[in-house]
Design a protein that fits this description.
alpha/beta, 49% helix, 11% strand, globular
């Protein structure tokens, strides 16, 4: 299809961005994996803190959280080490593979928005903190709902590592045959994913209400009054402070207006 837009590609995260409103599939499984691996409790809020990293690195960073480290050291007499991380990760993987397809439903007009981008000739890439063996389950499950990106890069696919480094985003551009990072957009619901986009030289869009940073369920989002939503927006926006996305929107449903503005800015010679 002929590209009618100056934008060549949009690279989406998965959980909390395109599927799984509130990004609950990974967070709830982290809680369960700590219980299964060590009979140790972490909160859902703690589980969300390192979101966007690869899952082994996510578990490692959880162990470094002050609140988790204090309880872990009190319970086991020493801080969490790499072999502990390995054991929790080993518990995490089968649990995640068993549950990820249950959270494959697209978010709020996500498929319609993506198809609209494709109609403009914009290519659709994607990358995730999930490893390939989880993505191999999630990809066909999401396809059943109509979401079919042109490229998928998973954590662990590349030897250089995952977010916040730019390599997964850049690998998408290689596979999509995009020629200019300044004509590409990264959309994510976590700061590591926004840093990934910045580091790759792309425009970046952070999602406030559908993803990890707000942590709302779909039901909570749909039933919330404006005061509650504004509080959730501010909570999420505060978490994006350091990564400084070019745009912040509620959900992917609001992306078309951002795409139009980026097109305008590219047309005026602006760069990310």
């Amino acid at each position: 299809m002929t590209n009618t837009s100056p934008i060549q590609a949009v690279i989406f995260d998965w959980a909390g961005t395109i599927v799984d409103f509130g990004s609950f599939a990974p967070t709830t499984i982290f809680v369960e994996a700590f219980r299964q691996g060590f009979d140790f409790d972490i909160s859902l809020e703690e589980a969300r803190v390192p979101m966007g990293l690869g899952k082994w690195e996510h578990i490692q960073q959880l162990g470094l959280l002050e609140s988790v480290n204090e309880r872990w050291t009190a319970q086991f007499g020493q801080p969490m080490n790499d072999s502990d991380v390995d054991k929790i990760y080993a518990a995490f993987m089968p649990l995640q593979k068993a549950k990820v397809a249950d959270h494959a439903m697209p978010i709020l007009n996500a498929v319609k928005v993506v198809e609209g981008l494709k109609e403009q000739g914009i290519k659709i890439g994607s990358c995730s903190g999930y490893p390939r063996e989880v993505m191999d389950i999630l990809i066909p499950a999401a396809a059943e709902y109509g979401y079919k990106p042109d490229a998928v890069v998973a954590t662990g696919d590349l030897p250089q590592g995952g977010r916040p480094a730019p390599y997964m985003a850049l690998q998408n551009l290689i596979e999509l045959e995009a020629t200019d990072v300044k004509a590409c957009v990264k959309v994510d619901d976590s700061s590591p994913g926004i840093f990934e986009g910045h580091n790759a030289g792309m425009w970046t869009v952070g999602l406030l209400l559908s993803g990890n940073e707000a942590g709302l369920t779909l039901e909570e989002f749909q039933n919330a009054d404006e005061t509650t939503l504004e509080q959730a927006r501010q909570k999420a926006a505060d978490k994006y402070n350091k990564s400084a996305p070019h745009y912040l929107i509620d959900t992917i449903n609001d992306l078309p207006n951002v795409i139009s503005d980026i097109e305008r800015r590219i047309g005026q010679g602006e760069r990310p």
